[in-house]
């Protein structure tokens, strides 16, 4: 009996040694740890923002053979480890582990400690479902882009409606004071975009990657434009057009399932916008993306590109590149959330846009706004947990909770940012339809009554 009862105790002691190498001494940590036998290791923060909960010694072994960002995320999704409390705060653990394991000596010590953990590395829970499964072979072909988009958005309109705002706007909101609820902040973002584009009644607007049509409906109803939205998701388009009809806007806007590269050569719009779409275009395809956007924007017109950009790499040397590859940075989102997504620094996007014939007229960072947006989404997802798990399962709930909480952390610390880049396409005389100042963006404006005649773009 003594030999049997000592096995859990030995496992806990071995696990404490592993976590000491991973996270440092308990007193220097800003969180608590609770082991599977009920033992609690208090950190230096009181109260602790979160508690890290490994389920077994075998669970730690699975998580750390070998250690990587991907394995940490998969361990949480599988339920091998849990986080009770603030998951955004816990997202900093991955950065801390990566920094500590940059030491070869510490990495070697960890390997010995992990191999000494009792329990096998066989799975006790099914692996998470991969969104990459079954994608066509050629990266960023039309067929593969369509499949990638649908793998993300066709999780279901009912799923997204549980935690998005009432207009189902799946992009960074705009918090003028920080006290707005998610509904008001998303409407403020829609209005901010319309004002930046200086929309006028009767103008033709194209929304590339329009989602559930929130922006085209807003622009048509409040600014009197004729709007076309395009998406690769049939489910998005169906709900968008249903809402357009319910609001009596079908004469002024519509949503189509179409690739932006397939719009006809004679299609021309006064204003073009892309919100939360160019992140999924791919670095190699950005020149093509901006060339098509320029082709679709009339001379003198405006294009607003709203998208996530990453911080430039401060160390691009060979050793750093190898470490990033071994850490499998970004693989979790690529495998389980949105396949083929690729973020670039802001200067890369601006360079490719200007090479396509655009002129940069305004750049605004909404980094802090996106961190707040994601916190709203995480809180709403957590509040709807039972309904979410009934729709998509417990593992999918954990994937989305981790994805959005970790993203909030990345925006908060500056690893990611959100850039609204307003681009003009100068006409033959070099003119662009834009005022001399930004004053009009913030001045009170009366609601515009849209014309009651004319077809959508």
Task: Tell me what you see in this structure.
With 457 residues, the protein is of the alpha/beta class. It has helices spanning 2-23, 57-63, 69-78, 87-90, 92-100, 104-115, 142-153, 157-161, 182-196, 214-223, 234-246, 286-296, 318-327, 331-336, 346-355, 367-383, 385-392, 394-413, 439-442; strands at 32-34, 40-41, 50-54, 81-85, 204-208, 226-231, 253-257, 269-275, 297-310, 359-365, 416-424. The strands form two sheets. The chain has a seven-stranded mixed sheet with strand order 7-6-5-8-9-11-10. Strands 2-1-3-4 form a four-stranded mixed sheet. Strand 6, helix 11 (234-246) and strand 7 (253-257) form a beta-alpha-beta unit. The chain is elongated and about 75 Å long. Mean pLDDT is 88; it is low at 1-7 and 449-457.
Structural class: alpha/beta
pLDDT < 50 stretches = 1-7, 449-457
- Main sheet makeup: 7 strands, mixed
Helicity level, as a percent range?
A: 40-55%
Kindly state the mean pLDDT as a whole number?
Answer: 88
End-to-end C-alpha gap: 79 Å
What order do the strands of the largest sheet run in, or round the barrel if closed? Answer: 7-6-5-8-9-11-10
């Amino acid at each position: 009996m003594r030999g049997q009862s000592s096995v859990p105790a030995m496992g806990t002691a071995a696990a404490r040694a592993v976590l000491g190498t991973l996270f440092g001494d308990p007193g220097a940590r800003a969180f608590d740890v609770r082991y599977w036998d009920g033992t609690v290791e208090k950190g230096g923060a009181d109260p602790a923002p979160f508690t890290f909960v490994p389920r077994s010694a075998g669970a730690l072994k699975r998580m750390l053979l070998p250690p990587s960002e991907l394995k940490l995320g998969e361990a949480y999704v599988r339920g091998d480890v849990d986080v009770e409390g603030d998951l955004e705060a816990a997202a900093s653990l991955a950065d801390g582990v990566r920094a500590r394991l940059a030491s070869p000596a510490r990495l070697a010590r960890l390997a010995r400690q992990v191999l000494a953990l009792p329990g096998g590395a066989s799975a006790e829970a099914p692996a998470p479902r991969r969104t990459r499964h079954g994608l066509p072979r050629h990266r960023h072909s039309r067929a593969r882009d369509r499949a990638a988009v649908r793998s993300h958005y066709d999780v279901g309109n009912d799923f997204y409606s549980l935690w998005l705002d009432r207009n189902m706007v799946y992009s960074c909101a705009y918090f003028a004071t920080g006290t707005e609820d998610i509904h008001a902040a998303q409407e403020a973002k829609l209005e901010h975009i319309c004002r930046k584009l200086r929309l006028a009644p009767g103008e033709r607007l194209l929304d590339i990657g329009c989602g559930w049509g929130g922006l085209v409906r807003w622009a048509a109803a409040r600014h009197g434009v004729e709007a076309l939205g395009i998406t690769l998701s049939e489910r998005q388009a169906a709900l968008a057009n249903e809402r357009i009809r319910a609001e009596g806007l079908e004469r002024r806007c519509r949503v189509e399932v179409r690739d932006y590269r397939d719009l006809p050569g004679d299609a021309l719009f006064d204003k073009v916008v892309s919100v939360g779409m160019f992140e999924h275009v791919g670095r190699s395809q950005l020149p093509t993306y901006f060339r098509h956007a320029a082709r679709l924007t009339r001379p003198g017109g405006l294009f607003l590109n709203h998208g996530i950009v990453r911080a430039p790499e401060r160390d691009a040397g060979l050793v750093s590149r190898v470490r990033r590859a071994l850490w499998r940075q970004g693989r979790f989102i690529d495998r389980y959330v949105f396949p083929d997504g690729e973020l670039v620094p802001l200067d890369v996007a601006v360079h490719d846009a200007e090479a396509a014939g655009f002129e940069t007229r305004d750049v605004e960072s909404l980094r802090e706004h996106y961190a707040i947006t994601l916190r709203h989404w995480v809180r709403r997802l957590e509040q709807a947990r039972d309904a979410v798990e009934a729709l998509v399962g417990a593992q999918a709930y954990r994937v989305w909770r981790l994805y959005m909480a970790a993203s909030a952390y990345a925006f908060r610390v500056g690893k990611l940012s959100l850039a609204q880049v307003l681009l003009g396409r100068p006409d033959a005389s070099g003119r662009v339809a834009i005022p001399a100042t930004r004053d009009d963006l913030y001045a009170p404006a009366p609601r515009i009554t849209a014309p009651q005649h004319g077809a959508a773009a």
